[in-house]
């Protein structure tokens, strides 16, 4: 094989196996752009509005730019501010923390430790990727409306008790693939949507519902992204 043939083979190998997915303009698609798998996962927390209600609620959310992050601190150790309280509290006093409640709610074939609260195994149909997950170590609990966005869109002015309640509100919590949750981080819908495009409608319904409950503002870009996602609802 001569040098020219070798170069052509290498180039073809890169194009077929090593390059990122491209969009219509020839650029790499952003992570979590909603262009991945399309697996129907019709699961939303209790209290999530239906699509027509969510569309109406979206038009009524107050407009606003994102506020500053000054004072935002999630860490609760070493005397840190801990503005949303210590994670996964048992806010309803039933003896089970919120993480355990969400895992038990969103998974099937659930096995609990000593038949109590902690979930040791089960099966999750991950709404964000469409992947089936059977290891709880690969699952994280996502705040659909990120706490950082809550802070910047109204929560900075709330009393501590209201912020703790919002951080543990089951309507805003989903069990999801850990890697997808880390990819999302604190991004808003104009910056990140589930790679599983089939979940765009449900994701937007949850997001709008939570923003409505807590009277939080949305940016123009956020509203446009949510409106686009709600347009996919059947």
From TrEMBL:
This is Uncharacterized protein DUF1524. Pfam families: GmrSD_C (PF07510). Residues 1-22 form the signal peptide. PROSITE patterns: PROKAR_LIPOPROTEIN. InterPro entries: GmrSD_C (IPR011089). Residues 99-226 form the GmrSD restriction endonucleases C-terminal domain. It comes from the Bacteria. Keywords: Signal. It comes from Umezawaea tangerina.
């Amino acid at each position: 094989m001569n040098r020219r043939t070798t170069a052509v083979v290498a180039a073809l190998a890169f194009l077929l196996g090593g390059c990122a997915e491209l969009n219509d303009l020839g650029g790499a698609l952003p992570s979590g752009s909603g262009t991945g798998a399309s697996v129907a996962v019709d699961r939303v927390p209790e209290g999530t509005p239906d699509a027509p209600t969510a569309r109406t609620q979206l038009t009524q959310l107050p407009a606003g730019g994102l506020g500053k992050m000054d004072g935002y601190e999630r860490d609760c150790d070493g005397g840190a501010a801990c503005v949303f309280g210590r994670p996964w509290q048992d806010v309803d006093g039933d003896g089970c923390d919120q993480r355990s409640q969400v895992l038990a709610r969103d998974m099937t074939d659930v096995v609990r430790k000593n038949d109590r609260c902690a979930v040791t195994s089960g099966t999750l149909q991950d709404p964000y990727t469409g992947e089936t997950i059977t290891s709880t170590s690969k699952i994280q609990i996502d705040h659909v409306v990120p706490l950082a966005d809550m802070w910047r869109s109204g929560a900075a002015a709330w009393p501590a008790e209201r912020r703790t309640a919002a951080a543990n509100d089951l309507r805003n919590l989903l069990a999801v693939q850990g890697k997808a949750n880390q990819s999302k981080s604190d991004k808003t819908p104009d910056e990140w949507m589930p790679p599983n495009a089939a979940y765009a409608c449900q994701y937007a319904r949850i997001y709008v519902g939570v923003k409505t409950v807590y009277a939080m503002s949305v940016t123009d870009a956020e509203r446009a992204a949510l409106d686009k996602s709600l347009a996919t609802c059947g």
